[in-house]
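testing teh design pipeline on a random one, pls ignore if ur not involved
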């Protein structure tokens, strides 16, 4: 694993930039554990103070220090994206491997439900969940709901790889040796799909974070939980750009754009690493 990361940093500039940006964002999020203030409290600081030596990111109209609030917001946003990615990877791996290896009616049934989830309009459904759950729609609940919609595309991709592995010689040997289908799928085939799992996880985090930010900006999440989306929501609610407190908008936008660019570059570089020809070309091979 460390050998792969070292090679990617050495030979792939996109991966090096992406891992640097994501590391900066993660380190900034970790500062929230050392925050001297509660980010949910309001009017604890002078309102509408521009960035200065005392208030690095300034304060907002609700009397909150944006530096410390931003650390909590990006931590919650990253945790949300990671939860969705992990939960949806579990579903996509299970469905993809089962459909690809077992085939037959199992494949047809799983792909039938897969196609249904692909066709569902996700955003209106999430808005409906908001109106049903209201204040009970916390970060964990929203992550569980979104994970149920974030797996079908990746499950089909994993299935395509598993279909090829099903007819490989080592699979036949495992069957003749008496290995169960579960062991063959999750011990023999899973390592072959892990590069795809990691690359799609980055893309899934971008998708889930972007959707959460959109919902929060529109007020369709719990606006009292500090996230990048709720920071932008409160800035819009107080007409930050109109009254001249531009830093209230700039801070969350810069953070989320940095996160998106870093994750995107990681996803692109991992996709390239999966292709042996692209990997050899990067390393100076033929």
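output:
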């Amino acid at each position: 694993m460390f050998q792969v990361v070292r090679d990617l940093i050495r030979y792939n500039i996109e991966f090096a930039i992406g891992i640097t940006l994501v590391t900066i964002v993660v380190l900034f999020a970790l500062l929230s554990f050392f925050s001297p203030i509660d980010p949910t409290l309001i009017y604890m600081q002078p309102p509408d103070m521009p960035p200065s030596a005392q208030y690095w990111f300034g304060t907002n109209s609700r009397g909150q220090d944006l530096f410390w609030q931003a650390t909590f917001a990006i931590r919650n946003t990253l945790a949300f994206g990671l939860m969705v990615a992990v939960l949806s990877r579990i579903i996509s791996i299970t469905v993809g491997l089962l459909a690809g290896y077992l085939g037959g009616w199992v494949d047809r049934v799983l792909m039938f439900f897969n196609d249904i989830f692909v066709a569902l309009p996700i955003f209106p459904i999430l808005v409906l969940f908001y109106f049903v759950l209201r204040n009970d729609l916390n970060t964990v609940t929203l992550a569980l709901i979104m994970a149920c919609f974030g797996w079908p595309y990746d499950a089909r991709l994993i299935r395509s790889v598993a279909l090829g592995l099903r007819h490989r010689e080592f699979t036949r040997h495992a069957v003749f040796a008496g290995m169960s289908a579960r062991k063959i799928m999750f011990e023999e085939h899973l390592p072959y799909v892990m590069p795809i799992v990691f690359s799609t996880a980055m893309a899934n985090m971008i998708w889930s974070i972007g959707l959460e930010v959109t919902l929060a900006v529109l007020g369709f999440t719990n606006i009292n939980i500090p996230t990048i989306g709720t920071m932008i929501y409160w800035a819009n609610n107080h007409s930050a750009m109109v009254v001249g407190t531009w830093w209230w908008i700039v801070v969350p936008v810069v953070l989320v754009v940095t996160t998106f660019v870093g994750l995107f570059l990681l996803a692109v570089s991992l996709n390239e690493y999966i292709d042996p020809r692209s990997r050899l070309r990067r390393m100076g091979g033929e």
